[in-house]
Amino acid sequence: MFILTGNGIIIWAKGLIILPDEEKLPDENARLHNISQMCFGCGYNNNIGLKLQFHMHDSICWATFIPAEEHQGWDGCMHGGLVVALLDEVMAQWLWLNGISAMTAEMTTRYSYIVPLGQMLRVEAERIGGRGRLYEMAAKIILPDGKVAVKAKAKFLRLRAG
Questions:
Q1: What is the pTM of this model?
Q2: What is the predicted pLDDT for the residue at 17?
Q3: How many domains, the chain?
């Protein structure tokens, strides 16, 4: 069940989606949405979640994140599983922000540099192909010096209605 209010807020039975009018946005392409308040990636009510905020610019979905000590794997490095979670989330959000409900079917990841703690990371995703219900996506984590630390490619399957 969806309810659209006059100020652009959509209330959904499972959460809240906020799509304000374009003139009210600090970045004209930014979108704050939160289907599940407990989503590990973007849920604001998840105490251990990443609380990512996603934006679209041209055909790129992006977010920033500063990994802290609680995100550590090896000393001073972000845990590899959480790195993969960032990449998966940004690709899924690209689809969501483009009106596509889909889930990850397959993902490959290539690490080139460690992902350090305490530094602002930029996570980006774009669509690179697909057909029918299958969407092929690519994502990367960019370090403050511009180096690409990690890349991923994934296939997402659009959910069937009903």
A1: 0.78
A2: 43
A3: 1
